[in-house]
TrEMBL record:
This is 2,3-diaminopropionate biosynthesis protein SbnB. GO terms for molecular function: oxidoreductase activity, acting on the CH-NH2 group of donors, NAD or NADP as acceptor. It comes from the Bacteria. Pfam families: OCD_Mu_crystall. PANTHER family: KETIMINE REDUCTASE MU-CRYSTALLIN. GO terms for biological process: siderophore biosynthetic process. GO terms for cellular component: cytoplasm. Signal peptide: none annotated. InterPro entries: NAD(P)-bd_dom_sf, ODC_Mu_crystall, ODC_N, SbnB. It comes from Saccharothrix coeruleofusca. Coiled coil: none annotated.
């Protein structure tokens, strides 16, 4: 069993933004071709607790580099107040011939980077060339990774407008963006100002219920609805909607799920991103309406990234190999 900690995962993934965007693109195309298996995620919730949860995402991804396993990721928002990360995660990879687990990876960075790669892929696909700025709602680690990946795939990106419920967190975010990404961040005190500041918007908050409309958005804005529960039903229904997988997105009281419950169907969803990337689905942008991209975050993406990390780490001699973790053969 190969065990890879956070620092080792970070070493493998450092400066690999463009590689990961292409990896995620391939994973979405394989998923659209039916060459994946992504059972519904399992949400472990606790009696009387509406904020905290642990999610299990089993998945298989085929193709030239097949991978199978499971991500087990917790979300405890109050951790932030204690100086801890909101999310913590492990990923288990299984060997496809025997089914035996062969690697255990710290998964929070894998999860954050595949999420950001998915958002950046959609931004590259749907925004107009020369898009120069992005508005960010939520100044946590996910939106920082989104910004890092947007910087890699949108060379013209030069302006950032950010809002967070915590002014201190927003200020720290701005300082970090200046130091690490050489990007100036204008912090504003109203979410709608951030929504309307640029033709590209990224929503990555810990909201559990809708709290935001898009009345301030520019015509034709692209909204990366990463956290899935920010937008009102009215905002979703007034927009064009692209998802990664409708069956996954329309669950667990996400904004698209609430829109489905309101309308009795999924006609408001215009296309899956895999179908758009493959040219299987004809999708025409309406310049007068915002486009909302709502990615549930398929476990197949985690498997693709984890497989890359495991293979590269093994090649470099990183990690700790534990002998005797599994039972020895009986014959």
């Amino acid at each position: 069993m190969l065990i890879l900690g956070h620092d080792e995962v970070a070493e493998v993934l450092r400066d690999r933004e463009k590689d990961l965007v292409e990896l995620v693109r391939t994973a979405y195309e394989l998923h659209d071709e039916g060459r994946s298996a992504v059972p519904h995620s399992t949400f472990l919730r606790f009696p009387g607790d509406t904020r905290n949860r642990i999610i299990g995402l089993p998945a298989f991804l085929g193709g030239d580099q097949p991978a199978a396993g499971m991500k087990w990721i917790s979300s405890f928002p109050a951790n932030v107040e204690a100086g801890l990360a909101r999310a913590s995660s492990v990923v288990v990879l299984n060997e496809l011939t025997t089914g035996r687990p062969v690697a255990l990876l710290e998964g929070s960075l894998i999860s954050a980077k595949r999420t950001a790669a998915s958002a950046a892929l959609a931004a590259r696909e749907f925004t107009e060339p020369g898009t120069g700025g992005v508005g960010l709602i939520g100044c946590g680690p996910i939106n920082f990774e989104v910004l890092r990946f947007l910087r890699a795939v949108l060379p013209s990106l030069a302006e950032v407008t950010a809002f967070d419920l915590s002014p201190d967190r927003a200020a720290a975010f701005a300082r970090r963006a200046a130091d690490e990404l050489d990007l100036p961040v204008a912090v504003v005190d109203d979410a709608h100002r951030a929504v309307g500041a640029h033709p590209l918007v990224s929503l990555a908050t810990t909201a559990s219920t809708p709290h935001l409309d898009l009345r301030a958005a520019r015509p034709g804005a692209v909204v990366l609805h990463v956290s899935l529960r920010d937008l009102t039903v009215e905002a979703v229904l007034a927009a064009q909607n692209v998802v990664d997988d409708a069956d996954h997105v329309c669950r667990e009281r996400t904004s698209p799920h609430l829109a489905e419950q309101r309308t009795g169907g999924r006609a408001f969803i215009d296309a899956p991103i895999g179908g758009v990337l493959r040219g299987r689905v004809r999708f025409t942008r309406d310049p007068a309406r915002p486009l909302v991209y709502s990615p549930f975050g398929l476990g197949a993406l985690d498997m693709a990234v984890a497989r890359l990390v495991r293979d590269e780490a093994a090649h470099r001699g990183l990690g700790t190999t534990v002998e005797g973790f599994l039972p020895r053969p009986t014959t």
